[in-house]
Inverse folding.
């Protein structure tokens, strides 16, 4: 990209320094998520925390973006289909330089550019307005088709929730991606196993997520969604996979990094108090040492 | 006005307009949901196969894909029946097209009961109301083939989402090629001082017939407005009609709740209250039948407009509002 300081140009391979940097970024994202939701008094910390490594790796290692020129036509695109993880998206966009980090504390407040769910009209760097679940993959397909029509090198990334897979439109879109052979598209499923009303398998049993995508004709990878090397390798394999799209089923822990939030359904859509947030931040920073 | 009105379905005009548009604008892409032969997008598909996407029977996915294409600079025309475009895919239109203000054009064919034999499941009587209620959505219901083509070109130039409602059945050609269609501007088709008939879509031709009969039989001079753009409405034309003629009839192939009639009442109530009689579907679902049978059964003939005009004039004269 054009600007060496702010661009997140991919370099082949992943050095140990990169892994350290990305782990640190993921930790920063978690701290932002906790403080922003605490300040907002509402929001969705659980599914934001589970996607921290995926977002950090995409924005700081994999994707070709230009925060100083958010409209750069050849950029890669990211669609947060699970729009309730907006706090994590805003955190990574701020860290990447799309807007000031201080703005994160305006999350969900009247007049803020950081709406409760992502709005491309409000926030620099947000590529699609999401929040009504099940719709992101269709829009990502549209972006991938446009890139192909224009002969652009753009790759499109989309992050779905596992509970979100209950929405029928996801599977309409999954058929489209395969039918159109969108090998410039990579989907991630943040497979943390929980949704608002309880474990996904209890609400609407969703076993064998990978098998379902495979049956639809996708190239399917299963990884630990907190393993940065695995995330990076999956993106590399997706790039090398021709003729069909790749989905990365990323096993994650909802609330990851905050012991009292991990695997706890209640923290899907509840903000921590300031005290709880600071306790969690201390824990995250302690773990980093 | 054309001397001898020939009948062309607005969906047929849509299909031809897309091809013309595609020839001059390489950013135009067309999507359909397994109805390309019916919506007439098959002509674009044959001419520009690389810019045409049949999304299969998946209207929600089609709207989302159109949004993604628009977010990347394309001008997508997404086409299916009105009942599926506005009904089945309402949330997609709202969330990923209108809320972000994306440049998607929705070509919704088979609006209203003139769909005919397919029956109520395929006859959209509420699509205009649904689309009109979405913030920032432009809603156009062209009256004939000429207006359809001009609306398609105007929609492509307009930045933001546009809903264009089209019909299945042939309708007389009213306009000549010199017609200067503009989004948000009603067309004055006939001057008159006793009552104004404001119509859209297939009922514009009926409104003109009704005006002729009112003149011949009743000695009343009826103004006729074609209000193709339901939203943003031409408020000034409606207010002028209300204030200058003192009585209004609206005529639409849509539920009287939420469409053209409602739009006109909202404007007159605020700025120039006068008697308004609303011709339209009286809050009912359609049914199977020929278009002609259905137009008669649901009170949408020119004769029904004449009666409504007489009622409106009577209310004006008696001071009953």
């Amino acid at each position: 990209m054009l600007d060496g300081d702010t661009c997140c140009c991919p370099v082949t391979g992943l050095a140990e320094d990169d892994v350290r940097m990305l782990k640190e970024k993921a930790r920063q994202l978690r701290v932002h998520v906790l403080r922003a939701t605490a300040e907002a008094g509402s929001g969705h910390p659980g599914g934001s925390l589970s996607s921290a490594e995926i977002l950090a790796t995409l924005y700081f290692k994999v994707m070709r973006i230009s925060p100083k020129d958010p409209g750069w036509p050849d950029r890669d695109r990211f669609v947060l289909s699970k729009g309730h993880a907006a706090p994590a998206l805003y955190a990574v966009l701020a860290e990447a330089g799309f807007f000031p980090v201080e703005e994160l504390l305006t999350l969900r407040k009247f007049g803020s550019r950081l709406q409760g769910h992502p709005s491309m009209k409000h926030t620099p760097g947000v590529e699609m307005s999401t929040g009504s679940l099940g719709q992101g993959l269709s829009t990502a397909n549209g972006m991938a088709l446009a890139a192909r029509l224009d002969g652009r090198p753009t790759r499109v990334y989309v992050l779905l929730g596992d509970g979100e897979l209950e929405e029928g439109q996801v599977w309409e879109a999954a058929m489209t991606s395969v039918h159109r052979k969108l090998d410039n598209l990579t989907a991630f499923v943040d497979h943390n196993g929980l949704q608002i009303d309880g474990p996904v398998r209890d609400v609407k049993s969703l076993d064998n997520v990978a098998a379902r995508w495979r049956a639809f004709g996708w190239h399917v990878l299963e990884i630990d969604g907190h393993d940065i090397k695995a995330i990076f390798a999956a993106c590399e394999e997706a790039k090398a996979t021709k003729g069909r799209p790749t989905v990365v089923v990323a096993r994650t822990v909802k609330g990851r990094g905050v012991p009292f939030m991990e695997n706890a359904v209640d923290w899907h859509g509840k903000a921590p108090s300031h005290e709880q947030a600071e306790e969690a931040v201390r824990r995250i920073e302690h773990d980093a040492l | 006005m054309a001397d001898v009105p020939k009948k062309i379905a607005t969906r047929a005009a849509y299909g031809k307009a897309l091809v013309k548009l595609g020839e001059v604008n390489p950013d135009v892409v067309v999507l359909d949901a397994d109805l390309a032969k019916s919506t007439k997008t098959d002509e674009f598909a044959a001419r520009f196969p690389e810019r045409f996407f049949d999304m299969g029977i998946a209207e929600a996915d089609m709207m989302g894909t159109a949004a993604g294409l628009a977010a990347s600079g394309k001008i997508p025309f997404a086409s299916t029946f009105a009942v599926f475009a506005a009904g089945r895919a309402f949330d997609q239109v709202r969330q990923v097209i209108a809320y972000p203000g994306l440049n998607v054009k929705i070509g919704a064919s088979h609006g209203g009961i003139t769909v005919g034999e397919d029956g109520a499941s395929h006859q959209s009587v509420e699509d205009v109301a649904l689309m009109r209620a979405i913030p920032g959505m432009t809603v156009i219901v062209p009256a004939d083939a000429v207006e359809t083509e001009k609306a398609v070109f105007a929609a492509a130039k307009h930045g933001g989402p546009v809903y264009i409602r089209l019909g299945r059945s042939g309708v007389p050609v009213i306009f000549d090629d010199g017609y200067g269609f503009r989004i948000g501007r009603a067309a004055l088709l006939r001057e008159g001082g006793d009552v104004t008939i404001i119509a859209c879509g297939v009922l514009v031709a009926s409104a003109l017939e009704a005006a002729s009969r009112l003149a011949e039989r009743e000695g009343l001079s009826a103004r006729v407005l074609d209000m193709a753009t339901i939203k943003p409405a031409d408020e000034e034309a409606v207010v002028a009609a209300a204030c200058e003629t003192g009585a209004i009839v609206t005529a639409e192939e849509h539920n009287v709740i939420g469409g053209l009639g409602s739009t006109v009442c909202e404007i007159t109530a605020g700025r120039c209250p006068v008697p308004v009689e609303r011709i339209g579907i009286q809050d009912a679902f359609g049914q199977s039948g020929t278009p002609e049978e259905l137009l008669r059964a649901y009170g949408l003939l020119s004769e029904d407009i004449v009666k409504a005009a007489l009622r409106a004039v009577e209310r004006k004269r008696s001071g009953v509002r």
In short: Chain B has 13 helices and 14 strands.
